[in-house]
Amino acid sequence: MSLKIRLARAGSKKRPYYHVVVADARSPRDGRFIETLGSWNPMLPKDAERVTLKADRVQHWLGVGAQPTDRVLRFLDKAGLATREAKSNPSKGEPGKKAQERAAERRQREEDAAAKAAEAASAE
């Protein structure tokens, strides 16, 4: 049985509240879970206490082999209970394929216009 430390949604519509739970990886998001380890209230301001965790129980489940999801791993890293490697995607900020094609065409037109202007200036 593979265990996950993940979020289970609670709260009403447009007012999310999440429980940090340990669950079997095959069970549904808001379905059966083994134990509640904490909570996350994203509606609170960022400087408030948004995340609460039971550190000793989290350490126990990590020791047993439970794998945290990415969002929960961020919480655990901030609390000092686990380490999360920083992800790097240098190509994320690049424009899409069509935008790159348009930029290349624009550069080509500018180079052609500059060459034509230089040719006209040398002819005079």
TrEMBL record:
Single GO MF annotation? structural constituent of ribosome
- Point to the regions of Low complexity compositional bias: 115-124
- Compositional bias, Basic and acidic residues, is annotated for 94-114
Q: Which UniProt keywords apply?
A: Ribonucleoprotein, Ribosomal protein
Tell me the InterPro entries matching this sequence.
Answer: Ribosomal_bS16, Ribosomal_bS16_dom_sf
Coiled-coil positions: none
Source species: Aureimonas endophytica
Q: Where is this region: Disordered?
A: 81-124
Task: Report the record's Gene Ontology biological process terms.
Answer: translation
Q: Does the keyword Ribonucleoprotein apply?
A: yes
This chain's protein is named: Small ribosomal subunit protein bS16
NCBIfam families noted in UniProt: S16 (TIGR00002)
Family the entry assigns: Belongs to the bacterial ribosomal protein bS16 family.
